[in-house]
Specification:
Elements lengths: L1 H15 L11 H4 L1 E3 L2 E3 L1 E5 L5 E5 L5 E7 L5 E3 L7 H4 L9 E3 L5 E2 L3 E4 L2 E4 L8 E2 L12 E6 L2 E8 L10 E9 L4 E10 L3 E2 L3 E3 L16 E4 L3 E3 L12 E2 L11 E2 L9 H6 L3 E5 L8 E7 L5 E7 L3 E5 L23 E5 L14 E2 L5 E11 L1
Antiparallel strand pairs: 1-2, 3-4, 4-5, 5-6, 7-17, 8-11, 9-10, 12-13, 13-14, 14-15, 15-28, 16-27, 18-21, 18-23, 19-20, 19-22, 22-25, 23-24, 24-28, 25-26
């Protein structure tokens, strides 16, 4: 009898003594290569609490982001690849990237500015999406790492790149703070009037990248209104209330709870792929969203100075794409929260303007803050 009691007890003690899961870094030596004659590198940021972010200067992509759960186990919570080659493949869909000059869609790939019609690259059916084919996600940025927590990226987007007027000088900083924030700041100046709408496109799964779908994550968005779209996901121009719709996330709601309702807007996006108009703070940063993963206890809060945020539910993930560690990224296996101005603003004078003029400085900030509860 004693033997039967002791063996399970030892097993329990052994299980309790298992070391906590720690970040597993991608090798900077094997990640990179060359692109357009420039060296692609991988940079590692660390904070005082053990969080780690790895970021490449190819597209300014967050390649990995390790955060702890409520037990202290670390997981990588962003989708991506172990090497540059993965990001060059046909399945690549903006994993972890900086987006510009214009995040989201511009209808029919054109806009009129000061009586001049500008034609942009059409890379999303008839529309222009996320800056075009050679958007900011597909260029090698100049990079400098001044300290263990900070990465500085710079890029000069030349006049008429992808159809946009003006030489646009852009600087972006990533900072992994001791408050467990991934803080992203953007600055830009131009020598000609031009639309600018920069954002970040990490695909998050707080269970860990490749660990199933995100339908059980609890989403809360600080927005009373959103911008409905047509079948091409271009805003109609209406700013509609979320009340009484599947787009009401003013209280924490599971992402998958209403995603299959008989709703025209959900059908257009194959789920959530819409722009929420934030209830902006009178001053300072707006608390835009909070996400909770109930099993791990991980939380993510989003703060920004932008007037809106795109929530995308991973509806175009195919469940066939093997990423880091060979894990398959399932359909609806991640979500994106992209702080921004409204889509198609250059064609919608009723929307807040995205035009940057010479002599002005563009500034945007997005903070993803991680915790447990």
């Amino acid at each position: 009898m004693k033997k039967k009691i002791i063996v399970p007890l030892l097993a329990v003690l052994a299980a309790c003594s298992q070391p906590l899961r720690q970040p597993e870094l991608i090798s900077a030596d094997t990640f990179g290569g060359e692109r357009d004659g420039k060296k692609v590198e991988l940079f590692t940021l660390k904070n005082a609490n053990g969080l780690v972010a790895q970021i490449t200067n190819y597209g300014g992509r967050v390649v990995s982001l390790w955060v702890p759960d409520k037990k202290g186990n670390f997981d990588d919570v962003v989708l991506g690849y172990n090497s540059l080659q993965g990001y060059l493949g046909s399945n690549e869909i903006y994993y972890g990237t900086l987006v510009g000059r214009y995040g989201n869609r511009i209808a029919n790939g054109q806009f009129t500015l000061n009586d001049t019609v500008y034609s942009l690259v059409q890379n999303n059916g008839p529309n222009h999406l996320h800056g075009g084919i050679k958007g900011f996600h597909n260029v090698v940025w100049d990079a400098e790492q001044p300290d263990e927590k900070t990465l500085v990226l710079k890029y000069l987007s030349p006049d008429m790149e992808e159809g946009y007027p003006g030489n646009l000088q852009v600087k972006v900083t990533y900072e992994l703070t001791d408050q467990n924030e991934l803080k992203i700041q953007y600055w830009a100046t131009t020598d000609k009037p031009t639309p600018v709408n920069l954002t970040h496109h990490s695909f998050f799964n707080l269970k860990g990248a490749g660990n199933g779908d995100v339908n059980g994550h609890l989403m809360q968005i600080n927005a009373d209104r959103y911008t409905p779209v047509d079948s091409g996901l271009i805003p109609t121009g209406e700013v509609a209330p979320v009340e009484g719709t599947p787009f009401d996330f003013r209280t924490a709601t599971a992402i998958g709870e209403r995603i299959d309702q008989d709703n025209e807007q959900l059908k257009f996006g194959l789920g959530y792929d819409h722009n929420w108009v934030l209830n902006q703070a009178a001053d300072g940063l707006t608390a835009a969203a909070k996400v909770v993963e109930p099993v791990s206890g991980r939380t993510m809060e989003v703060f920004t100075n932008e007037p809106a945020m795109q929530f995308y539910g991973g509806n175009f993930l195919k469940g066939k794409d093997a990423g880091k560690g060979g894990k398959v990224y399932d359909y609806r296996g991640a979500f994106c929260l992209e702080t921004q101005h409204y889509p198609d603003s250059p064609n919608k004078p009723e929307f807040p303007s995205t035009i940057l003029n010479p002599g002005q400085e563009y500034y945007s900030v997005c903070i993803y803050k991680f915790g447990v509860e």
